[in-house]
């Protein structure tokens, strides 16, 4: 037998046995994986939970925990505990169990329930069972900030026909992979959400309320790691700013035909005046400035008037201090009196033979002997 014929026979044998070998290997792999026992009780995030949460996820010696609730039986293995088809049942059980045992709310943004679901999903993912993440938009902060008419369009608990996911073609298990599917959102999701919000909230199909609802869906999907291209605008504008923006709009009038809830809050009281807050502040500041300027002008006028009055009183006082002249006495001006007094003094000093300095009017000599003055 030649080498070529031997190789041909070997190749033919491989082709004949290739399919059975692959099937056997796949079966062995699945059996090996299925036989891995559940070990969530030693999983670090599980150990960090409160006792009431631990009892819901895994409680030794009983079937009243999660693995029993989703229909698994002994042996307790990851293949059943983390089965993808059990995602919806697991989410419902964990939410109810944690709410009851930990004495907390069952709906809304409940951190302890969110943490418990995160532990379950994280454990399964770590062990190679990446189950679809259960849709939890109803506990998303952006969803909770919307008006009720918007919430009912995004997620209506207990209903499977009149909210977003059924109208996108999604069903149980209600997971993010369907809610945030780009093609489903583009083909059906946006149209349904726009129509539903416009009807329930009695507003326009392209108004700010619809924009806010679409933004909630976009931000939620992005936070879940499943950004939707059709809602790309939502990732650049948060639902909070959009929710704030719509408060300035008019209150919609509900249509007849059913109990509808207003889609928007009433406008702020400051808007009823027609003036913005900045304009009101500007007017107030200007008014205060005018009042202060007026007070300053009045104070300056009073000060000037008082100064003028004091000056007049001083001159009057100087004149009244001068003694009245006696009958026959010669009235002299103050300057003349000074010179006269000085002259009298000089006369006295001249009689004593003392040379003195004379004070005379300008143009005359200022010093002579007293004898010459006497003669």
From TrEMBL:
Range of residues in the leader sequence: 1-34
Compositionally biased tracts (Basic and acidic residues): 357-369
Keyword Cell membrane recorded: no
First-listed, main subcellular location of the protein, grouped into a coarse class: membrane
Residue ranges the record marks as coiled coil: none
Keywords assigned by UniProt, alphabetized: Disulfide bond, Glycoprotein, GPI-anchor, Heme, Iron, Lipoprotein, Membrane, Metal-binding, Secreted, Signal, Transmembrane, Transmembrane helix
Location in the cell: Membrane; Secreted
Disordered: annotated span: 245-271, 312-331, 343-375
GO MF terms, alphabetically ordered: metal ion binding
InterPro entries: Extracellular_membr_CFEM_dom
Membrane-crossing residue ranges in chain numbering: 279-303
Source organism, top-level taxon: Eukaryota
Gene Ontology annotations for the cellular component aspect, listed alphabetically: extracellular region; side of membrane
Membrane topology: Lipid-anchor; GPI-anchor
Residue stretches of biased makeup (Low complexity): 245-259
Residues where heme binds: 175
Family, as annotated: Belongs to the RBT5 family.
Protein name: CFEM domain-containing protein
Organism: Podospora australis
Organism phylogeny: Eukaryota, Fungi, Dikarya, Ascomycota, Pezizomycotina
